[in-house]
UniProtKB/TrEMBL annotation, chain B:
InterPro entries in UniProt: HD/PDEase_dom, HDOD, RNase_Y/CdgJ
Classification via Pfam families: HDOD
CDD domains: HDc (cd00077)
Domain HDOD intervals: 19-214
Protein name: HDOD domain-containing protein
Highest taxon in the source lineage: Bacteria
Length: 111, 291
């Protein structure tokens, strides 16, 4: 199984991809393109099987952090998120994760 | 300045619902759908009469949001492939976006308002997908409509709304709480009342009414929970703006009920980001081709 974040265009499916309700989205043997990735995301497909899995086996999504985010930008983004989430409990698991994602996202966009 | 006006939810919507009514075609469409002898062709013909709407529905149907591999070129195909009720829900979302025009800019920037609504609609639809719900378009449409009560209030009591907006910016309070303190109700209830007057099904109207207070609804708790969290996501991503400047407080009970893993959140955010632009251009009827 390969996580969709680790797929690259040109890989070939070794097994049918179905959505959660079992509807087939793409048959085995199909060559993947960028368009398919967004379709997989839309239908909640997180991992697929591709031929010759000489790729990252780990289904752990890579963090979308660019290696060198300016710490100043990151601090700014964090302060903004703390302000934005003032009415939420920063220790609640969902809020904590959301704040982390949004802080990185904001810093990335400011970079 | 504390004049206690005689305001109620019903009073807010009684004439607004007629002045700002859904286009005639929407009720024709609903009638045709509910009529046992209507064919797909009859239903498609009603939609096809509105060319602008037709173009936008086809554009949406061909966007990755749907993920159909075949290109959908006609309304008949859309109705056949996506389903009659789903197409009706999309037509509803698009129709409402045209109903409220001419609200002063100092109260609301309409483009920002709809952007927040679209982000909520997308998040709501994606969450519903992850929860294996069926008939996903009702989640999309509930997201598009969740703050429509604010528009009613901007039309009906603009001075009070402006006062509330300024007060919240000055004191850093949550707008939906301030609405409730001052008026005894909030925009969610007003929106729900408007949708009921428009005869929108309760599966959409009720979640809109409870998206800030889950204790108020019991008929559609799953829809309400999904909408509540979707609104939070749209605020956290800072896409668009409907008046509220902070992320509304998460109802922890709602989060428990959803049974979503925090690990799904990065994927959800990526999905909202990756589909947002195309959805906006489809809904705002931009000129670029649907790809």
């Amino acid at each position: 199984m390969v996580h969709i974040d680790n797929l690259t265009p040109g890989m070939v499916l070794s097994r049918n991809v179905c959505d959660r309700s079992g509807r087939m989205l793409l048959p085995a043997g199909a060559e993947l393109t960028e368009k398919h990735f967004s379709i997989f995301r839309m239908w909640g497909v997180l991992e697929v099987e591709v031929a010759g899995e000489a790729v990252v086996e780990d289904a752990e999504a890579p963090a979308p952090l660019s290696p060198e985010i300016d710490p100043e930008l990151l601090a700014e983004a964090r302060a903004e998120m703390e302000r934005l989430f003032i009415y939420n409990d920063p220790e609640h698991p969902a809020i904590k994760e959301l704040m982390r994602i949004c802080t990185e996202r904001r810093a990335n966009r400011a970079a | 300045m504390l004049r206690k006006p005689q305001l109620s939810v019903e009073h807010m919507v009684e004439d607004v619902s007629t002045i700002h009514s859904l286009p005639l075609f929407y009720s024709q469409l609903s009638e045709a759908i509910d009529h046992p002898r209507s064919s797909i062709g009859d239903i498609a013909k009603i939609i096809a009469e509105d060319q602008g709407l037709t173009a936008r529905i086809l554009k949406l149907a061909n966007s990755p949001l749907f993920g159909y591999f075949s290109k959908i070129d006609t309304i008949t195909q859309a109705v056949t492939i996506i389903g009659v009720l789903q197409v009706r829900d999309l037509a509803l979302a698009l129709s409402v976006m045209d109903v409220f025009k001419g609200i002063p800019e100092d109260l609301v920037n309409m483009e920002q308002f709809w952007k927040h609504s679209i982000a909520t609609g997308l998040a709501s639809r994606l969450l519903a997908t992850s929860q294996r719900e069926s008939n996903l378009e009702r989640f999309f449409v509930a997201g598009i409509l969740h703050d429509v009560g604010r528009l009613v209030m901007y039309v009906k009591i603009p001075e009070i709304c402006l006062e509330l907006l300024e007060q919240c910016r000055a004191t850093g309070s949550l707008l939906h709480r301030a609405e409730r303190e001052k008026l005894g109700f909030d925009h969610a209830e007003v929106g729900s009342a408007l949708l009921k007057r428009w005869k929108i099904p309760p599966r959409v109207a009720e979640p809109v009414g409870t998206h800030h207070d889950s204790s108020k609804g019991d008929q559609y708790p799953r829809e309400g929970a999904i909408l509540h969290f979707a609104d939070l996501i749209a605020h956290a991503l800072q896409i668009g703006n409907s008046g509220e400047v902070f992320v509304p407080e998460l109802d922890h009970g709602v989060w428990e009920r959803l049974q979503i893993s925090s690990f799904y959140l990065p994927t959800l955010v990526r999905q909202v980001d990756s589909t947002y632009e195309q959805t906006v251009s489809a809904l705002f009827g931009g000129e670029d081709a649907a790809r």
